[in-house]
Amino acid sequence: QNIGLLAVSIAALIEIFTIPAFGSLSDRVGRKPILIGGAALLGIWAFPFFGLLNTKSTVLIILATIVGLSIAHAAVYAVQGSFYAELFGTRVRYSGASVSYQVSGIFGGALAPLIATWLYPQGGTTLIAVYVAALCALSIVCYALAAETYRKDIYAEDPQERRLVTEQG
């Protein structure tokens, strides 16, 4: 009877395969194309996703969840760990990646249910889809402005980092 749990369970089972596949693909083509593509698909998929949920059809709800989680979400999630870590030099990598991940979690995760709860009475699921699409668009802009990291030597000393450490020491 719990269609949501069934849908998420099936999608999560599929993600066991799609997350490593997207991670491997990002090692060949780069982090940014996978992140941008995944975020774009998430933003676009938000509209049909809610439309399919609103049908109350078990099959369509499961389909909506599978596409959203095991493809779009998997593409972004598979790459985030390496991308965030590679953005920072060796001396600040852990702190930089952690702060980035935690702050984005606040805005993208913690506040999202509160905002969606506020938006629903204003415009239903369409307004929530617009909100999701706007966050995805912001993500795309940030990914586009960030450096490509997949060929970066993560063990090399970053000259800017070395200079900052020398100035503080």
Describe the structure.
- With 169 residues, this protein is mainly alpha-helical.
- Helix content is 84%, strand content 0%.
- The chain is built from six helices and no strands.
- It is elongated.
- The protein starts with a helix and ends with a helix.
Q: Nutshell version of this structure?
A:
This protein is mainly α and 169 residues long. It is 84% helix and 0% strand.
Average pLDDT, rounded to a whole number, is 91
Output the number of helix runs. Answer: 6
Judging from the principal axes of the Cα atoms, what is the shape? elongated
Per DSSP E runs of 2 or more residues, the count of β-strands stands at: 0
Uncertain runs are: none
Order of helices and strands: HHHHHH
The radius of gyration computed from the alpha-carbon positions, rounded to a whole number of angstroms, is: 18 Å
Which strand-content bin applies to the residues? under 5%
**Biggest sheet descriptor:** none
Helix/strand-derived class? mainly alpha
Helicity level, as a percent range? over 70%
Distance between the termini: 62 Å
Strand-helix topology:
Blueprint: H1 3-29, H2 31-54, H3 58-86, H4 93-110, H5 112-145, H6 159-168
Descriptive tags:
single chain; 169 residues; mainly alpha; 6 helices; elongated
